[in-house]
Every structure is written in structure tokens, then in C-alpha cells.
Design brief:
This protein is mostly beta strands and 217 residues long. It has one domain (12-107, 119-177): UDP N-Acetylglucosamine Acyltransferase, domain 1, CATH 2.160.10. It has strands spanning 12-13, 24-25, 30-31, 36-37, 42-43, 48-49, 54-55, 60-61, 66-67, 72-73, 78-79, 84-85, 89-91, 96-97, 102-103, 122-124, 129-130, 135-136, 141-142, 147-148, 153-154, 162-165, 170-174, 189-191, 197-202, 205-211. The protein has a ten-stranded mixed β-sheet with strand order 1-2-5-8-11-14-17-20-22-23, with no helix packed on it. It has a six-stranded parallel β-sheet with strand order 4-7-10-13-16-19, with no helix packed on it. It is globular and about 55 Å long.
Length: 217
């Protein structure tokens, strides 16, 4: 694709076509024709975005990321350095992937056996966070606003708002939409210390309630 010559370290506006106004692509990155970049999307040094991939509005790919054809990345997503999003992976809006997060799409790969017809879907739901060096096995769904600790290996579905750590990852608590640890009282209600939102735990499901309204006076 045509490139502008920026000042050292600067980014450039992506060419028109399948890139909306304000999308930026660093000159060292390769964004194939047929990839779609939403307004304000940013693709940094040495990334490769294949044709058929979609990056949502205001999403960002850090240094040395790869996005395969058919992958969908939502709006406001932050993908840090050295992350590969293979076919079958989908990131909903506002997902955060820490540095060197690993996704896979085949459970039993062999170099000499083609398994392209067996790729499994991996879904990371809205607002979830994957810590640095976490590994997510194929076919897993990570619920909205869940938090996966650094270095964890996710082998099964993660519930919304769940905090999971370890190898294999196990649930060790709950977190708010702001990513704060929730401490439930005897009535199974918790308060987010950052946002003031209240949460209720019912039958193993964590759900947000109306935010607290400060008392007058």
C-alpha cells in the first residue's frame, strides 16, 4: 500500500478506502488491502493486519502484533505488544490484552496434519482484561469485565466479572467494571471502591446494580 514519509517515530494517516478517517498506520506496519480500520484505530510498529480483519473504532495494536483474516476486534480495544490474534478469535468492545498474551485455535496441532477446518472460536467479551503473558486455549469464552491474571493459562470458560489466576486458571474472586476487587457482605452485596457501583452475587452470578447516590449534607 502507498505510504507517506513521516518524521522519525511519527505515525501516518492510513490511506482512504477501507480505513475510516483518523485511522493511523505506522510506516513499518503492513495492513493488507481489504482489512477494515475504524475511525481513530492505531496500528503501531511492525504489525501485520491481514485482509478480512476488522479493527473497531479507537482500537490500538501495539508493537509486533498480528491479526488474521476474519478476526473481529471491537471498539476501544487495547492490544499490547507481541500479541497474535489468530483465526477464530474475537475481541468485543473495550477488551484489554496485556503484552505477549497468547491465543490458540487448535487443541491438538500437528505440523503435518491440516486442521484449518477445525479452528475453534475464542470469545473475549466486553470490558474483559487479559494480563501479561496469559494463555487462552481455543474454544473458551471469557465473560464481560472478567480479569485474567498475568501468566494464567485459561482452559475453560470464565464467568463475567470473575478474577482468575494460576496454571490452570481458577477463580479467586470477583472484580467490578473498574477492575477493583469486590468484597461481598453477608447479604451478598459489594461496593466498588473506585466507581461507587454496587454489585450483587446471586446463584454464583455477579451483576451490577445501580450506582450509589451520595447522600446530601
Amino acid at each position: 500500500m502507498a505510504r507517506l514519509e513521516p518524521e522519525p517515530g511519527a505515525s501516518v494517516k492510513a490511506p482512504e478506502g477501507d480505513r475510516e478517517a483518523g485511522a493511523l498506520v505506522h510506516p513499518t506496519a503492513l495492513v493488507e488491502a481489504g482489512a477494515v480500520l475504524g475511525a481513530g484505530a492505531r496500528v503501531w510498529h511492525f504489525c501485520h493486519v491481514m485482509a478480512g480483519a476488522v479493527l473497531g473504532r479507537d482500537s490500538s495494536l501495539g508493537h509486533n502484533c498480528f491479526v488474521a483474516s476474519g478476526v473481529r476486534v471491537g471498539s476501544g480495544v487495547r492490544v499490547q505488544n507481541n500479541v497474535s490474534l489468530y483465526a477464530g478469535v474475537e475481541l468485543e468492545d473495550d477488551v484489554f490484552c496485556g503484552p505477549s498474551v497468547v491465543f490458540t485455535n487448535v487443541k491438538n496441532p500437528r505440523a503435518f496434519v491440516s486442521r484449518k477446518a477445525e479452528y475453534q472460536r475464542t470469545l473475549v467479551c466486553r470490558g474483559a482484561t487479559l494480563g501479561a503473558n496469559a494463555t487462552v486455549l481455543p474454544g473458551v469464552t471469557i465473560g464481560s469485565y472478567a480479569l485474567v491474571g498475568a501468566g494464567a493459562v485459561v482452559t475453560k470458560d470464565v464467568a463475567p466479572h470473575a478474577l482468575v489466576t494460576g496454571v490452570p486458571a481458577v477463580q479467586v474472586g470477583w472484580v467490578s467494571r473498574s477492575g477493583e476487587r469486590l468484597d461481598f457482605d453477608a447479604s451478598e452485596v459489594a461496593l466498588c471502591p473506585r466507581s461507587g457501583e454496587r454489585y450483587r452475587l446471586r446463584a454464583g452470578v455477579c451483576e451490577a446494580l445501580a450506582a450509589l447516590v451520595p447522600e446530601e449534607g
